[in-house]
Amino acid sequence: MTRTPHLTMLWEQHDPAVQLRDRFGFPDAAAAGDWVARSVERHWGVRVEACERITMSSRNALAALRTPLGPLIAKWSVASDVFPRLSALATLTSWLERQRLPVSAPVAAVDGRLQVELDGTSIGLQRRIDGDLLDTADPAQLRAAGAVLARLHRALAAYPDAGRVADLVPHPKTPGTSIAGWLADAPGHLPDPACDVLRRLLSSAPGMTLPGQLVHGDIRSANVLCAESGVAAVLDFEEMRWDRPVVELARSAVLLGTRFRDWGPVGTDVHTALLEGYCSERPLDGVETHWWRVLVLWYSLLMIPDGPDPTGWRAAALRLSGAAPAALP
């Protein structure tokens, strides 16, 4: 193998060489690249011509590889407590690909495993999917992302082994309980008018009788690759949880513009375009419609920092609370 990989942090402001040593136990980039190349050749039978880049986030790492099969991505974790979940999610993602969902499915190892545990890590291999991060200024991409999210929710609801995954992922409280508890002790830096609107919406909300199911957990621009006006792939299922689809839809609408180091709000036109695409595949019922309005405002308020607000989350929440809710198609 040639070329020492370039080291980067996905979003943290740390020295990547230090983190590679302290978190992953490699003395330098060359040693990490050699380990990845040897692991891929041994377990997948694929020769690595170059490990071009290693990107780290928390206790996870991703290596961009050049191989005779084309560009591949090796992802590994040293967080042993999540190894069973990573294995279950690899199986689920492979199943989603067979349902014709646009996902980055794992490449099976020589022995058939989709996630391999070795040297204190859990590692998987994927093909690189060409595309650009979702552009929230492109209405066609937004509608396409909404439609794919609806299809993903429908597929996840039908996953045959959902019970196994459900035992391994977080189960948040129902939104009514979560929001009521949060409002009872809302941080003092939040705008009172927007909090008052949220209280009124919550008080008139119907009971959340909708069943929970598996949801992606982290739909945002950084995890949606697009090609022209369509979705090429939904990435990174590691944050999967058990929740209501409308909760994920609302959270995704608010956070859709966030990337790795850019956490600014989007406008209600973006919310509406995502919602239109979603409803083209899975229309919301009356209960979900009300909760969509509650949840979009709540998630917007949650993002307001206690201190400088350079991207304008406070102004966005105030506009949202004072404007008519996004219209349903």
From TrEMBL:
<dbReference type="InterPro" id="IPR002575">
    <property type="entry name" value="Aminoglycoside_PTrfase"/>
</dbReference>
<keyword id="KW-0418">Kinase</keyword>
<dbReference type="Pfam" id="PF01636">
    <property type="entry name" value="APH"/>
</dbReference>
<dbReference type="InterPro" id="IPR011009">
    <property type="entry name" value="Kinase-like_dom_sf"/>
</dbReference>
<keyword id="KW-0808">Transferase</keyword>
<comment type="similarity">
    <text>Belongs to the pseudomonas-type ThrB family.</text>
</comment>
<dbReference type="InterPro" id="IPR050249">
    <property type="entry name" value="Pseudomonas-type_ThrB"/>
</dbReference>
<protein>
    <submittedName>
        <fullName>Homoserine kinase type II</fullName>
        <ecNumber>2.7.1.39</ecNumber>
    </submittedName>
</protein>
<feature type="domain" description="Aminoglycoside phosphotransferase">
    <location>
        <begin position="73"/>
        <end position="279"/>
    </location>
</feature>
<dbReference type="GO" id="GO:0004413">
    <property type="term" value="F:homoserine kinase activity"/>
</dbReference>
